[in-house]
């Protein structure tokens, strides 16, 4: 076995030889090669076996990755199969164990075939008529034809990835290089993620396509749905069929599902607005059965290559880390006394020095952990966090300590700037395109503040002095803050002097208002400004506005708010946006509220529908109410808030007590209008849409408007944890890479609604009611022409006041740049029932208003 090499002219290496070489820690390069050979040899076999057993191609891909992570972990620890000649069976046994964990972790059960008890169901009757799972050449050929057809339902960007990876067979590195040549500079990791997503979207497309192609006499509603899409199978029909089968049997006919904010087909099961709906049991059973029947073929077609790539990458990354640890010089041994057994001559078989042995063990453990961290799954139900080197797989995050501002990526940690001695970073924000990072530094206890903006692509930094500035947000590349609550300043990336943004279309000259910058919308095109009337009773006070770059503004909610962000403690703070950017949450209390008053609450605002709700935290006693330190959303869209109990002596004596009355914090979750205390502890936290969490913990006092510096911990979806720094004051995850989701124009006149938002449920031109379209349900959003049905006033031949609300059709088109953001720049409204048709020459320009 010895020095045997692998090559085209070599004899095949046996499983027994591979296992022996994978267990041999004395020859790390050969050991790594053995691990790679094991992956190359058995990924497909384990993947197909798992898919046939689970009946779910995507779940099988995840379980297979975990299988090889576990197997590598065992081999790196020196533990191999009892019978090395049965390496394949050993790996398949691992996959069975990981499959059980998969179901336990998700509290899920296997999808089963619909049985005869479904006879007479309201949404159809009958039993499934599917066959046995196959992966023969005929089935693979059929699957390849279907996949090619489903590839045309993908977005333009995804179609290109599908063509290059699946049809032309290019590797991820080759695709990355080809895209770079065409002007699209993406990292290999980003391209790999896109490949993974394309595979998942095509896989769920298979479910819908196969269901549509079956004999649909089982369910009359499915027949009706398919009949409503006369063209060939496309993305709209795919989504409608899956919603019908998996979430809402009557999807498209009720007033709930069409308002669902979930636009990503892979997140369809996360819809929270269809909780009172029910799936079509017959179609869902048929879908699950077809999914199981085709799983082996789908997994071969879509998942073998990406899974093999991820497994090999994990092995390479793990071993690079292990080698770097082992190659570093060991610490010096402590002095040995001159007498005693240790003073004799060294033995020829003397064991490795303890320090070196520890380094070797740590290297192997590190390698084993990194192999596992490329596969991220939901945390086990009651598993405590494990502190491991997970940084190499996490999204980009920026954080500020008391001495420096840093950006941590998967590849490296970079110091962006040093913090001037005596200054404290209070705000840290990203631009929507992830290119610019901004922060606000406050000098001691004075009102002197400094704004900083760094272009991460070029390394250029800009600085502005701003006395009394508070709040920070990017609008495009411009860094915006509010000076002394009275002036909104926009700072250009060129470093030139800022310009003042004035409210356009809204007369606020008669009000004694303070402005508070809440943030910017997900596209980075608009600011959210909260106004507070210093005279308390003014009609323009306690309102939330959207403001464009030229100052055009409109209220998000027309009437006043009873609670304000930050409340009486620190107006303008404690705000967060939902992962999809459609909802704002802020913590606070009644303006001017007494510290001894009721507990703080959280107000949730829908930026599209203008609806808002305020829910107070639980009452813990009149003298120790809960006070909020931070608000954030989890990846599911639930609101979380960290809070502490106000010291009782504040109301009794007016004093804070020892150590400023610092108190521990707890985290509360808002679900179905009720707060529930969780087991978490954080003073402030943020989550990424894909489930990563960053949090700080510390004891806080009533006057700590921002929590004191503390350690920053990041946790992945497997509940693995790492500490980035011990003295962090502010942090912020980089926003997700921008998608091609366009907006509907922009605000171009006062009092408007809907414009500047993606897929708004209504829009209003700001004048006559004839300019209103409401109850809009959009299709094909993101394509060159988006269409919606809704209600509008039919005013032909009669006064507006006498006109009826009738069903109308809205077409949004002319997709292009609108003030630096991709948007539909024209809309046309017509009434088909009156013989009207779409005329591209008759439109409203909703970008310029002309």
Quick recap of the structure?
The chain contains 14 helices and 36 strands. The protein is an alpha+beta fold and 850 residues long. Strand 2 (397-401) and strand 3 form a beta hairpin.
Please describe what this structure looks like.
The longest helix has 27 residues, at 28-54. The protein is globular. The chain has 850 residues and is an alpha+beta fold.
Task: For the structure shown, list the relevant keywords.
single chain, 36 strands, disordered N terminus, alpha+beta, 850 residues, 8-stranded mixed beta sheet
Topology, element by element:
Elements: H1 15-23, H2 28-54, H3 57-76, H4 87-105, H5 137-151, H6 156-167, H7 172-181, H8 188-213, H9 220-227, H10 235-246, H11 281-302, H12 304-327, H13 354-373, E1 386-387, E2 397-401, E3 404-408, E4 413-418, E5 423-430, E6 436-443, E7 448-455, E8 461-467, E9 469-475, E10 478-483, E11 487-491, E12 499-501, E13 513-520, E14 527-533, E15 543-547, E16 553-555, E17 563-565, E18 575-577, E19 583-590, E20 601-606, E21 612-616, E22 626-633, E23 639-645, H14 649-653, E24 666-671, E25 674-677, E26 684-687, E27 693-696, E28 710-715, E29 720-733, E30 743-744, E31 763-764, E32 772-779, E33 786-793, E34 805-818, E35 821-830, E36 844-845
Parallel strand pairs: 1-29, 30-35
Antiparallel strand pairs: 2-3, 2-29, 3-4, 5-6, 6-7, 7-8, 9-10, 10-11, 11-12, 13-14, 14-15, 15-16, 17-19, 18-19, 19-20, 20-21, 22-23, 23-24, 24-25, 26-27, 27-28, 28-29, 31-32, 32-33, 33-34, 34-35, 35-36
